[in-house]
Design brief:
- Helices cover about 45% and strands about 20% of the residues.
- It has about 150 residues and is of the alpha+beta class.
- It has 2 domains: about 1-30; about 35-140, Alpha-Beta Plaits (2-Layer Sandwich).
- Strands 2-3-1-4 form a 4-stranded antiparallel beta sheet.
- A hairpin with a 2-residue loop joins strand 2 (about 75-80) and strand 3 (about 85-90).
């Protein structure tokens, strides 16, 4: 309650309880709550020009790349950037597997071309798999389970 009067605190608590009830009701009927989600991370090279170019490429990805993601079972993907650190949120179908996606990617010349292009911008440790540069993160907190 630092910097917050008791009255303001009570109003905020009531507001958030009401909003939480609304969101909870909306989420209970949403498909997203049951879909698997993977979070991954990767670093870009510390070069502002390369980072800007990487961002330009992602303003409108190649249609073949979009189609390959959907074909592998990815239903939604978002990538965020802070400095050189990237964070990906990937929602997938129940039958999605990284192994299946890797096999599909390895057989797709356009995906291989895209990955080679993206590799110019990514800070990938030596010896890393060229198609699996993103590292899967472990979930350490889930507000819904509190």
């Amino acid at each position: 309650m630092v910097g917050c009067s008791r009255r303001r605190h009570r109003i905020l608590v009531e507001f958030y309880q009401t909003e939480t009830e609304k969101v909870g009701a909306a989420n209970s009927s949403m498909e997203r709550s049951t879909m698997p989600r993977h979070c991954l991370t990767l670093d870009l090279r510390d070069d502002p020009a390369k980072i800007a170019e990487y961002k330009r490429h992602h303003q409108k990805i190649w249609p073949e790349i979009r189609d390959s993601l959907f074909a592998a079972g990815v239903t939604n993907m978002e990538i965020y950037l802070q400095g050189t650190r990237m964070f990906m949120i990937m929602d997938v179908c129940d039958d999605f597997s990284f192994e299946k996606k890797a096999a599909m990617d390895a057989a797709n010349p356009k995906v291989l071309e895209w990955e080679a292009l993206m590799g110019r911008f990514q800070a990938v440790p030596a010896g890393s798999d060229p198609l699996r540069r993103w590292v899967v993160m472990d979930k350490v907190f889930d507000l819904a389970k509190q």
